UniProtKB/TrEMBL annotation:
Keywords: Oxidoreductase
One Pfam family per UniProt: adh_short_C2
Protein name per UniProt: SDR family oxidoreductase
Keyword field contains Oxidoreductase: yes
Stretches for region Disordered: 1-49, 242-263
Annotated Basic and acidic residues bias: 40-49
Family label: Belongs to the short-chain dehydrogenases/reductases (SDR) family.
Composition skew (Polar residues), residue ranges: 1-11
InterPro entries, per database record: NAD(P)-bd_dom_sf (IPR036291), Sc_DH/Rdtase_CS (IPR020904), SDR_fam (IPR002347)
């Protein structure tokens, strides 16, 4: 989609077109391969500048959307990457693994369900073994299903959303502490929903508020160990999350148009925020939530 790289001087209103996605539906978790229009994950445009040379990263939800853009960027910045995703997302994950390998880095595919008992812990052990250590963690996987009323919101959905979005983050982070050396980083994907909850995303928004709070608390606890923890809070980004019931269908054509920038974000526009918070250049940045949302005022 984009022909210029992320470092080229350009007008942010025009870097990507204003999209009006047609109404569409995919079963959860949704595939980038089937998304209309396709997204930009930086496949053609992201230019590495050596900021993560030799790093060993585990990224959840790395097959598609924001996680895929982060995985591509990390590899081009010099990191080896272990990717977690659901088995149903193998097609998307293959593509990202190929791009990581084209960048000359190692890609370790570790599919599995973060809501399954024992899997989050196993994932970390497998990633550290395959990468020969672990010094960067990106907790990015997320579940978002829009439901109109509390009566329609099942206890099962409530629990699974918490399981995937925040319980797995706790389990992965706790296990990762067995491996993370001083200098290591953790970046958690939160959301503008943490402060501006949509009325149809009650469970999801509550997990995102929990992620913000967890990030700021644990950042203080791990500071003296030299491990920095931060979060990125995306606004409306065009990804498969939105068409697998993440938004009501009728809302899709207008997705992202109510931001000051006037358009939805593309996944690759998130990658530099994760690179910055993972790179040693952000050494004095801890417990921060970096908003990447097209200009909507946020705390
Ligand atoms: P996405 O669908 O591309 O990525 C979400 C990923 O979560 C999926 O690819 C899947 O691999 C993973 N996932 C979901 N359930 C899982 C499970 N049970 N086990 C393992 N993995 C599971 O969508 P995205 O928009 O790139 O989402 C990435 C993160 O960004 C999420 O945490 C999301 O909440 C957050 N976010 C997205 C937006 C947006 O507008 N797209 C806005 C704010 C925050
Ligand atoms: Mg996916």
């Amino acid at each position: 989609m984009a022909s210029t790289d992320q470092l080229t001087f350009q007008d942010p209103t025009k870097r990507f077109p204003v999209i009006s996605p047609p109404k569409q539906d995919q079963p959860e978790p949704g595939l980038d391969a089937d998304l209309v229009p396709q997204t930009d994950r930086g496949e053609e445009s992201y230019r590495g500048t050596g900021r993560l040379e030799g790093r060993k990263a585990l990224i959840t939800g790395a097959d598609s959307g924001i996680g895929a853009a982060v995985a591509i960027a990390f590899a081009r910045e010099g990191a080896d990457v272990a990717l977690n995703y659901l088995p149903a997302e193998e097609e998307d994950a293959r593509k990202i693994c190929e791009l990581i390998e084209e960048a000359g880095r190692k890609a370790v595919a570790l599919p599995g369900d973060l809501a399954a008992e024992g899997f989050p812990e196993q994932l970390v052990h497998d990633a550290a073994r395959e990468l020969g250590g672990l010094d960067a963690l990106v907790n990015n996987a997320g579940k978002q299903i829009a439901v109109q009323s509390l009566e329609e919101l099942s206890a099962d959905q409530w629990e699974t959303t918490f399981e995937v979005n925040i319980h797995a983050m706790f389990r992965i982070t706790k296990t990762a502490l067995e491996y993370l050396p001083a200098g290591a980083t953790i970046v958690n994907s939160t959301s503008i929903q943490a402060y501006k909850p949509s009325e149809d995303l009650i469970d999801y928004a509550a997990t995102k508020a929990a992620i913000n709070n967890f990030t700021k608390g644990i950042a203080q606890q791990l500071a003296q160990r030299g491990i920095r923890v931060n979060a990125v809070a995306p606004g409306p980004i065009w990804t498969p999350l939105q068409v697998s019931d993440g938004q009501p269908k009728e809302a899709l054509p207008e997705f992202g148009k109510n931001t000051p920038l006037g358009r939805a974000g593309q996944p690759t526009e998130l990658a530099p925020a994760y690179v910055f918070l993972t790179s040693a250049e952000s050494s004095y940045v801890l417990g921060e939530t970096l908003n990447v949302n097209g200009g909507t005022p946020s705390p």
